[in-house]
């Protein structure tokens, strides 16, 4: 499995996941830059994602929904802040309603995804920072560590395909 470390820190309001992939940085980058690849890994296996809009550039927005086992849909968005192809990107990650409008009562994180050559190919570091400790705790209670780890662990199969 590619995830090598998962941690959270209430004091800094962060979640950090580290993973290693047996592929070059440019290949791992493509998983996020291509909406059809992204939807194969963004949701956990039991909540597959469908990418609706993929404007993957600074100032752009990515919208998606995940479909649960009972057919329930959970929408979200990324507001892309910065891109450093193929080394990483920064974005605001939030929950959305059925029209892909932000849900103001749900936590929003600022995320930094970084890809560097190392290990067997690429070491990826995924850091999400929340505005408050309560916001971080809310997503922890929702199972974000398990969900994110299981989503990232799908990347190996995609890279091997």
Automatic annotation (TrEMBL):
<comment type="similarity">
    <text>Belongs to the AHA1 family.</text>
</comment>
<dbReference type="InterPro" id="IPR023393">
    <property type="entry name" value="START-like_dom_sf"/>
</dbReference>
<dbReference type="InterPro" id="IPR013538">
    <property type="entry name" value="ASHA1/2-like_C"/>
</dbReference>
<dbReference type="Pfam" id="PF08327">
    <property type="entry name" value="AHSA1"/>
</dbReference>
<feature type="domain" description="Activator of Hsp90 ATPase homologue 1/2-like C-terminal">
    <location>
        <begin position="23"/>
        <end position="159"/>
    </location>
</feature>
<protein>
    <submittedName>
        <fullName>SRPBCC domain-containing protein</fullName>
    </submittedName>
</protein>
